[in-house]
Hints:
Helix content is 29%, strand content 25%. By secondary structure, it is of the alpha+beta class. It folds into three domains: 4-84, Uridine Diphospho-n-acetylenolpyruvylglucosamine Reductase, domain 2 (2-Layer Sandwich), CATH 3.30.43.10; 90-217, 2-Layer Sandwich (Uridine Diphospho-n-acetylenolpyruvylglucosamine Reductase, domain 3), CATH 3.30.465.10; 237-297, Alpha-Beta Complex (Uridine Diphospho-n-acetylenolpyruvylglucosamine Reductase, domain 1). Helix 3 (108-117) runs antiparallel to helix 6. The longest helix is centred in the last third of the chain and has 19 residues, at 272-290. The radius of gyration is 20 Å and the shape is globular. It binds flavin-adenine dinucleotide. The site of flavin-adenine dinucleotide (FAD) has 32 residues, from strand 3, helix 4, strand 9 and strand 13.
Amino acid sequence: MTGLKEIEDKARGLGCKVLKDVPMSLYTSFKIGGPCDLMVSPNSAEALSQLLRMCREMETPVILMGNGTNLLVSDKGIRGVVFRICDGFSELCLKDENTVICGAGVPLSKLCHFASKHSLSGLEFAYGIPGFAGGAVYMNAGAYGGEMKDVVIKTRHIDMDGNIGEFTNDELSLSYRHSVYQENGYAIISLEIGLQKGNREEIKAKMDELMNCRITKQPLDLPSCGSVFKRPVGCYAAALIEECGLKGYTIGGAQVSVKHCGFIVNIGGATCSDVLKLIEHIKAVVKEKTNVELECEVKYIGN
Length: 303
Ligand SMILES: Cc1cc2nc3c(=O)[nH]c(=O)nc-3n(C[C@H](O)[C@H](O)[C@H](O)COP(=O)(O)OP(=O)(O)OC[C@H]3O[C@@H](n4cnc5c(N)ncnc54)[C@H](O)[C@@H]3O)c2cc1C
């Protein structure tokens, strides 16, 4: 792999956290994934800009990640550089009384608490989604009738040449689990979020209510990536999978959750290969029995 040593030296010189040959299973909520050549946690937008430009010049493959809660990483790991957009992008403040500026590395739960502390309503839906703010925009994460599309005013990003730019809500082309970043591959570094003044106690009560729904319905005690499949038009993936008799179906350490059939859980030692085989099996059975083609929501990373 070209350029790895140079990029490692440059990242260290810029004061970024650098790890070599680190197992991705330590950084994904699925607890799955082989080693990545180099993991860099950039400490600033300037450092990320310089490093992305260098990767482009050296033709070194780049993978961006946030909290790793929607990733399925190959057992062979990742060749190239993984940029983990986390602590270096942790800005969280009010721009004005209804607008929050939030770094891409801020956990959604922290963002939701910040909004509720300032009596700002609109983000309650996101409480309990375990990703970071950047990953939430990339995925247009949503739940319980809300989605990032409803609250994002604009984003800042760095393109692969290292240039900083912005997109407004319209330019983000946000739709169900989709944003323009899935096509252009830019690194999201921050977002501006528009909320409404509300009642602090009511906001907190709504967040608690939605968190309780998650605790009751989702297998939060086992490693997973949340819902594996997108919601097909007019029905729910979990209901289809259950109707097809696949509840509890297991391949290796990967199992269709008995609590929520839309989740695949790692019941111990699951490999990426186990999960991929289980996904293919579920898709084939659901297609055969219901004629619905399930599409993955989880992002697979493999070389
Ligand atoms: C228990 C559980 C429950 C969940 N519930 C929900 C739910 O209710 N609704 C929902 O929508 N999702 C849910 N998810 C899935 C996941 O939390 C969301 O998709 C979340 O938005 C992913 O954020 P992340 O920071 O973990 O991103 P990652 O998993 O790290 O990355 C996901 C994708 O985003 C890209 N990406 C991440 N950060 C950046 C960045 N800064 N710049 C550019 N690209 C980036 C990555 O390249 C990757 O393609 C759940 C997951 C789990 C484990």
